[in-house]
Amino acid sequence: MSCWMPECPAFSMCRGLAALPITCLERAKDLKTRLGILLHKPELGHRTGAPSKLQLGSRQRDSSQEVLEWRESFDQLLKSKSGVTAFHTFLKTEFSEENLDFWLACEDFKKTRSKTKLASKANRIFEEFVQNEAPREVNIDHETREITRKNLSGATSACFNEAQAKTRTLMEKDSYPRFLKSASYQDMTKQAASRGISKRSHT
Questions:
Q1: Global pTM value
Q2: 39 near 48, Cβ under 8 Å?
Q3: Of 61, 174, 187, 189, which is least packed with CB atoms within 10 Å of its CB?
Q4: What are phi and psi of 135, to 5 degrees?
């Protein structure tokens, strides 16, 4: 039986075997190319060299230290992006995240330079957080609410200052202490402390 006969079943076998080395070679070249690309990607650098491992360890130490600093003061917590995120998650469990959202909206509002945008943002923030029966009404007194309403007539970057300050004080005296005592924050501090002990044991 000859493999040169098209009708012969062995023809397909021979043809497949002949093609196999070429296919394997092409796949090998493709894998080599892909591997080379992966090895040169910055985000995968920690797999190929010691300096990146040191940088990763540094980031972990910074993060651990940051978590521990949140308990030093409410300001330290608000200065940290990850701290704000953790605090916001906690406030959701107490159904009071609108206080932090209002504070953050005011911080963003202060950065607005366009007078037109300033006025439209002021009205939007007032309607969402400050006015009576607002969808996400914050807990401020009637006098502060009325002062803020009057400020809208000539909106400036400071028109929410009093309402923002009252909301901040409420969070600092009420929600912040409970956050520090929460199970979620206690777990974070334990993990941060254990990473600190591990670091000292390796030095």
A1: 0.67
A2: yes
A3: 187
A4: -55, -35
